[in-house]
């Protein structure tokens, strides 16, 4: 996905997130994040947005962090839109992901951060979850598998190797697109292996929600469910 399309998705999902948070009582629990209330969710998103703005401005991780003063969600969102769009997507910028040290990384990351937390906000408000476009869902799955799962296994192998898994390959199939994941080690390759122990398949939106622990009831799991359970544990560790 290109930067303009990702920014358009970010704007749309933020509008839905803001509307859902306005409809939810501040103390409403967030079903997909049991330790959070709706107020906690809004505060988290505000801090995430501001953190990325400060990272772009400073050229590195913000320090000190977090700020001592309250952070306003709307102000953070406006700053988040303003700072990346004032730069070229290819402009150099610090990120925690070494292969992508540019503004485009943060545009992509914040688009996916927003859609996942938009789901959280809608669930907290008791609203139906809005549809996720296929292109955004597919890109989100790819980001999760490469920039989180595979990267975590390379960057923090000691932690990932503690996760109990069933060795072997499995396939994540979202619509017509597939990824093969090898455990342990969380190696990720495009395409579907013919020797997979298990397959997780479904429409792109449902597979994305399943992978992030946000539902995905229409996903079909076939094969070795123990392998799938191991993948689930790896995804949880990689996204903490």
From TrEMBL:
Recorded GO MF terms: metal ion binding
Span of domain MDMPI C-terminal: 135-229
Membrane-crossing segments per the record: none
GO cellular-component term (any): plasma membrane
Domain Mycothiol-dependent maleylpyruvate isomerase metal-binding: 11-121
Protein name: Uncharacterized protein (TIGR03083 family)
Organism: Nonomuraea soli
